[in-house]
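Supplementary Methods, section 5.1.

A reviewer requested that the exact input to the structure prediction be made available. We therefore reproduce it here, unchanged from the version used in the analyses.
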Amino acid sequence: MSVFLLKRLLTLIATLLGASIVVFGVLEILPGNAAQMLMGPDADPESVAAMAQQLGLDQPASTRYWQWMSGLLQGDMGNSYAYGSPVSELVWERLVVTVPLAVMAMLITAALAIAAGVFAAAHHKRWGDVGIMGLAQIGIAIPNFWFAILLILLFSVKLQWFSAGGFPGWSEEEGGGFWPALQALLLPAVSLAVVQAAILARITRSAVLEVLRDDFVRTARAKGLSRRAALWDHVLRNAMIPVITVMGLQFANLLAGTIVVENVFYLPGLGRLIFQSISNRDLIVVRNCVLLLAAMVVVVNFVVDVLYAAIDPRIKASDI
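The structure derived from this sequence is encoded token-by-token as follows.
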């Protein structure tokens, strides 16, 4: 097991290093100048050059990359060009919105998809199966931003059960609280979860149907185990490996793909920060946020690999 974890950990570190090089290199070749954006289009070249020197943009790319990596290892993400404050503070303020939003969306996705997928597999080729798969097909075809607008029209404009946007904060001092904050994130989480739940439900159904055909299931049924007990106690666990694979990818996509929904609901999350920083040519914020999202994706995949080993011991044995 230790060899298995060591290999995965080394892969994680190598992936993050490669991602940092790609992120830095891609942002370097993009057109535009942060100093010019800060000084305005009518600023004289001498002032722009002085601002670029103050920001350290006149240094070679290799030097700036090394300074960036050295700072990250010490927990320093640098200072934002546009906001004039530490990037770590900006990122933390936005993560307390984005991460709970992604977690809520993933919990809703898993609950809906596993229940729907198992139900469809248990009623294979019957009306329950056809109905669930039909709804899943519709869910896959719906863009989440369009569904988000429908949710706002129904629950915010017509029924007035939820606010149409904004985030009150997690603390009562900010004018919000735990329950008001969860309420503000519920509609965005549902809009994100619809497409992901539709995809995961189809994957769950296929995986459960495949395991149902195995010999050990027929043996368990022949020994008197009920269909329901065999389905939930034996079949589902053996079908979870492909399901967990897709869940890991989906959670990574939810973390990285909240930018559109956050803008629809006007949530002060990480996606909205990236959008604003791109507009302001604030590359130090963009590259830190993008690398953070990449790190989250890699860590999620690492956790998925560890879960593989916990669910199926054959994986870690064959890996070693």
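The longest helix spans residues 87-122. These observations are discussed further in the main text.
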